[in-house]
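dumping this here so i dont lose it
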């Protein structure tokens, strides 16, 4: 099986030894996206703002793979504060339509760069 790294132009560089996304066969695995700009600077502060920026970043990553948000079949949302679930869910609902992707949401102790939300996804090409 071959795999291909997906890295959109103008996106923040990874902060570790990982690919922004990897295409393997018809699947695209997107690494967790957070509320940062192209320079890697946190630009959103509330959980809802960070979710919006993370989902915009995810959309850009998918576009670099020739896909859109309709290709997403699974997401995982990581929240520092589970109390942010409702506000993040409201933003999330604006990015997907039925049939919605399968999803897990978990609370974590901390996230990189001190952000409140991280969202990863799996998409299917073709």
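and the seq i came up w/
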């Amino acid at each position: 099986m071959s795999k291909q790294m997906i890295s959109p132009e103008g996106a923040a560089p990874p902060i570790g030894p990982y690919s922004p996304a990897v295409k393997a066969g018809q699947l695209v695995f997107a690494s967790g996206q957070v509320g940062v700009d192209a320079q890697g600077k946190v630009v959103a502060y509330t959980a809802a703002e960070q979710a919006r920026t993370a989902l915009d970043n995810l959309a850009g990553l998918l576009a670099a793979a020739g896909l859109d948000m309709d290709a997403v079949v699974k997401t995982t949302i990581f929240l520092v504060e589970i109390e942010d679930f409702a506000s993040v869910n409201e933003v999330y609902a604006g990015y997907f339509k039925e049939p919605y992707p399968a999803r897990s949401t978990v609370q974590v102790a901390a996230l990189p760069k001190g952000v409140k939300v991280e969202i990863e996804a799996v998409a299917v090409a073709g």
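The mean pLDDT is 95.
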